[in-house]
Write a structure and sequence with these properties.
The protein is of the alpha+beta class and 215 residues long. It has seven helices and nine strands. It has a nine-stranded antiparallel beta sheet. The two termini are 18 Å apart.
Length: 215
Amino acid sequence: MLIKRIICKVKDGQRDSFSEYQQQWSRLSSVKGFMGQLGGWKNKQPFVACVYAFWETRKAYEIFMEEVHDVIFSTFGQGSTYSSIDVDLYEEVGSVLKSVIEMRAVMRQSQYFRVSLGVLKGNKKAHFILQQEQIWNPGMAATAGMVGGTYAFSLKDKNHFLVLTGWKDEVYHHRYYVDRRFPDLYRSANSSEDVIRISADEFKVENAWRVLKDL
């Protein structure tokens, strides 16, 4: 699975227009290889939009970019509503919650998302994956309100990773994960051994932006 991360800094007074234009991407639902797309406004940065799109394969995404993307984008003026845009591509390594096989279920059911973004030290990739499988995944799976997720590495820089998790809502995420579960997991994983730096995107899902694949 390929994950596309899009971060837009929206201009003052343009939030409503950006949101309306974002809904136009609903036509993605019929594109071959597309799995889903969702997003929302970054917590504590109300003019930063986070959008994540999911594709079955890298090849399907490349065909979309060559044949479809510009046709959709050129039909409306979303580009005029933001001052900057950053795009990154990540390739999935594994699932966070084994009982959720389909990422589509996470996209349908989650109302809140946490995306941890980090940079690994030198040759720490294998150890990071081991810690993810043995410590983080079981810990998150046992947390109330956890729906599922994925972890992936950047196509541009192999030491850059993301861990994307979906939650029933913000209350579950903060009360049961951030406050109660996360500190113990962080200590057990001793993440400072593997990671140079880490940050997080958090956002409540804008339901009008949610696009699911036509069945």
